[in-house]
Design brief:
The first copy, chain A, has 14 helices and 17 strands. The first copy, chain A, is an alpha/beta fold and 450 residues long.
Chain lengths: 450, 450
């Protein structure tokens, strides 16, 4: 049987997971593929510290160039992480014409176009199934399974740490800071949690998905990003009473070409006639009847609506050595088969085919909202708030006053239909200045999947 | 740009869906793939009746051989259905070395091995993403995305008609016969509904999935198959009170090699030391916390547990012209890319790699159960039933007597842990003969996904 030699860079969590998975299921994969995958070289920070990987003598090295440049190494697997040396590693391998498999979403987000150009220039390929949503094969699904579809909308729970925190907040009725502290103790969250809880990691992944779905490279700077620090157990409880669950979502939508009201008034740049795409990360109320609302703990899920296939959803573990290893193995199988069949550019790493599409600023996006305002409990309060909203051209679909609150102020919840984000923010400022409003209003978007 | 010419057989629902989808998104696909797919010939029953497909003159024919044998046709798409002429069509195309795309699960179930052999012999390929679960890309997921995994278990809602009926029974509290009649009026169920409601269609699909997951061809005759005719609204309601939803599932599990008690006693054929696989279709209680319980109406979903990836789930429309067309387009893209790159056997249609595995008889399978017995409301009834079960070595995990029942008999529900199907059936016969038992006991399996 034909053998393909692999060179791994990174012997940490994911690297160890890939090595263990290959040891466990390597012969099964070989019988399925007709190709044997062999770990030829592994670069680690410290050779002495990685004896436990159980690799034959001479496989381990602390020099990543020795892996990339080894003439026997046919596929390079970058699992080192980071965006600086990792970029050098991937570029070096691609320049040698070697296909690269990576799980590095931050690297792709920061340097995607350069890496894709380099792969194309040197007639090789870059595989990155493991970079988004761990074990969920969303990259292959978007590029191959849904190739006949226009993606009308996509909404994904793509950060396991945030979903774990929001799930525990809901199930146990406790606050963000409490769950975060415990998650950090248990190792589910980083000591510096910003990458996760402020939505940046989700934005990296959402940008990759948006680029694949829409055929143009989405600049990560154009992705409106909010995290979950401001979500309170109170809002999670009120949302539940209204039939919703709060989830951090990556949201990608094709926006109808007719400009929103506020944009029209301002005469802002909506003249380009190419498709206008919303790409954003924010916490949102998800109806409990939608499968996404049932995705709990560290699981991820991505719902995709295609113009032909209709609604689909893909669910699995979003992180962890094993789930990520499963996606790396899938990419290794593709890369090995492509080497065997000399079809290495069969599915190119990125096809830019939509030159007129663009990401629109969040201000132009029309959303639905949950708005919680703490008000003094006196007559006329509703009237003052709703007058301000009406003046901004914003319609209220319902007003709910949760029961059982006694005190100087009471919470009022307004559900708001289809208002442009710019108009909503402007109205919110005016509302927060009312003397009957006693705390910063809480505004969370609502995704109805209609 | 390179062009690949398609020949379609079948201008009905799915054929029309494929033609419409190609007309709508053909140029998008071409820009993604670098290949243009062109409908060259379409065979229909009556050329006069299919003018509405809007195809250029000369494309339509009523002779399928004219499509298959047209030297310009490079890929044949079989959407005619049935297992007799469809077999001739597919074999004829494969013998000419032409790749075939089909949505025909009945054909694959009946003649899979012959078709796969023929494709291999003539150096071509057979693609069948659309044969299982409509728009859900489960074939590609199992063969490519999860290629590094051993499939520990798989449970799928793969028949949309049954799921539609069970969903309406639950939501509206009405009986099977009533929903079936309305589904037939609306065209959601066939006039002769047996293929769907008796589980045969689900068995075709489950057999295909089991074969792919486990690497040996699963004889459809070895698939234990039950339908949903015997499910009553009463059991749906009681299941709901216990936190479960009843779904028709295709269930595939690797059974631990230690033989079950009853098999040991009987000394039956458990000597082969290859993996033992359960492959079956039956209605089952699914815990409401599991995502499968939330899959409603005509949607399908397949949950797959891999030894590396852990739990995954794939959800989408299980039938209909458009969802099926989406999967056909995905196969067409693969076939066209494989033609372009001369890699037509890159992912063979079937790889038999597990010669020692076998499907075990349902009698040897250990299941959990929901058992409803209508009993005379008098002391000592529980004792008599539980004594019979104890004698059969079957343990009861709980006994529930639903409230609010008045009459000569009352329902008693027993939840039973891990009993071999043979022992359970035997005990059931004895229980049904008790004079305090006034109706045939209702036995439904419970899938806990633990």
């Amino acid at each position: 049987m034909e053998t393909v030699n692999l060179g791994l860079i990174g012997g940490g969590t994911v690297g160890g997971g890939v090595i263990r998975a290959l040891r466990r299921n390597g012969s099964l994969m070989a019988s399925r593929l007709g190709v044997t995958l062999t770990v030829r070289r592994v670069a680690v920070r410290s050779v002495a510290k990685h004896r436990d990987l159980g690799l034959p003598k001479g496989v381990l090295t602390d020099d990543w160039r020795a892996v990339v440049e080894d003439p026997e190494v046919q596929i390079v697997v970058e699992l080192a992480g980071g965006t600086t040396t990792a970029r050098d590693m991937v570029l070096a391998a691609l320049r040698l014409g070697k296909p690269v498999v990576t799980a590095n979403k931050a690297l792709l987000s920061a340097h995607g176009p350069e890496l894709f150009r380099t792969a194309a220039k040197h007639g090789t390929n870059l595989y990155y199934e493991a970079s988004v949503a761990g074990g969920i094969p969303i990259i292959k699904v978007l590029r191959e399974s849904l190739v006949g579809n226009r993606v009308l909308s996509l909404a994904g729970i793509v950060n396991g740490t945030c979903n774990y925190i929001l799930t525990r907040m809901k199930l146990e009725g406790i606050e963000f800071s409490e769950v975060l502290a415990e998650a950090q103790r248990l190792g589910y969250a980083e000591a510096e949690p910003s990458l996760d809880v402020d939505g940046h990691d989700a934005a990296h992944k959402t940008g990759i998905l948006a680029s694949l779905a829409h055929g143009f490279w989405v600049d990560p700077k154009s992705i409106h990003t909010e995290g979950i620090r401001q979500i309170s157990r109170l809002d999670i409880r009120f949302a539940a009473q209204l039939g919703y669950t709060i989830k951090l979502l990556g949201v990608i939508k094709t926006v109808p070409s007719k400009p929103a009201k506020s944009a029209k008034r301002k005469g802002s740049a909506t003249l380009s006639d190419g498709p206008r795409i919303q790409v954003a990360v924010y916490p949102a109320l998800v109806p409990n009847a939608h499968v996404l609302a049932s995705v709990n703990h560290a699981f991820n899920a991505i719902s995709v609506r295609g113009d032909i296939v209709g609604d689909t959803l893909f669910y699995g573990r979003g992180a962890g050595a094993d789930a990520t290893a499963s996606s790396v193995l899938s990419d290794l199988a593709d890369a090995a088969l492509d080497l065997k069949h000399a079809s290495i550019e069969r599915v190119p790493c990125f096809v830019a085919h939509a030159s007129t599409s663009r990401v629109i600023p969040m201000e132009e996006v029309v959303s639905r909202y949950y708005l919680r305002i703490e008000v003094v409990d006196q007559p006329g309060v509703f009237a003052r708030i709703s007058t301000l909203l009406a003046k901004a051209g914003i319609g209220i679909s319902s007003i709910i006053q949760p029961e059982g609150h006694v005190g100087e102020t009471v919470p009022v919840i307004l559900m708001i239909h289809d208002a442009p984000n710019a108009a909503m923010q402007k109205a919110l400022k005016l509302i927060s200045r009312l003397n009957v409003v006693r705390a910063e209003p809480v505004l969370i978007r609502v995704e109805t999947f209609e």
